[in-house]
Amino acid sequence: DFNRLSETEIIYRVYWEFKNIASLTDEDALKIGKIQSGLRIGPLLERVGGVCRHKSVAIAAILEKLIKENYLQGKIFYATGVGHAWAVYKAANNNIYIIDCAQNNFTDLAYEPDAYYEGANDQLFLYIDAIPDEVLG
Description:
Blueprint lengths: L6 H13 L6 H8 L17 H18 L6 E7 L2 E7 L5 E5 L4 E4 L7 E3 L5 E3 L6 H4 L1
Antiparallel strand pairs: 1-2, 2-3, 3-4, 5-6
Helix pairs in contact: 1-3, 2-3
């Protein structure tokens, strides 16, 4: 029951469930994205990409639905870096969470501002450098 969980616990539970999914096909991502018509992340389903994109879009759709149903009070975003993609959740207290199931990373940037991901050509990049300006502002 989400009513007894904190915002962080809800986000982490969604992360944990998706982390354990080996992969999602385009068809799976499209089904999840159609949970409710009018989701902000809908256009992202048309982008090209791999497992990271599928999981990030699915997580964003689920979290957006939880926001619409008032289980969460923050905002969900989709971030893309060099050769990688993940979901970003900005909590009501302005903490920014990286939700990256493809690389097993659930991070609150308030505590780990130097968190990084492995992108194109196996290079390491800081998540914060690819976070959309509207999240940081």
